[in-house]
Amino acid sequence: MVAHLSDFGIAKLLGEGESNAHTTTMGTLGYIAPEYGLEGSVSIRCDVYSYGIMLMEVFTRTNPSSEIFSGELSLRSWINDSMPNATARIIDSNLLAPEEEYN
Length: 103
Prior knowledge:
Blueprint: E1 20-22, H1 34-39, E2 41-43, H2 44-60, H3 75-82, H4 86-90
Antiparallel strand pairs: 1-2
Pfam families: Pkinase (PF00069)
Protein name: LRR receptor-like serine/threonine-protein kinase
Domain Protein kinase: 1-103
């Protein structure tokens, strides 16, 4: 079995030197990044957020749009509440480098 990762149907073709775009909100609630849902701002970070939500879904066997996540409770907050500080222990410290190095 070979896994393939693709865009989530909201991919945008950007011009050279562009790193983000604004658009109308499309996508599945629970998987879309907050800045995309609130502002329509699309960037690489949106894909990283969606991929992270997919990984959390795989690890927890819980869908981010499950009926248990109503109001302020989301899959992300549920995991953070269940395992405080766990994320800090599993993140590669190289990923925490200053953002400007990648622009």
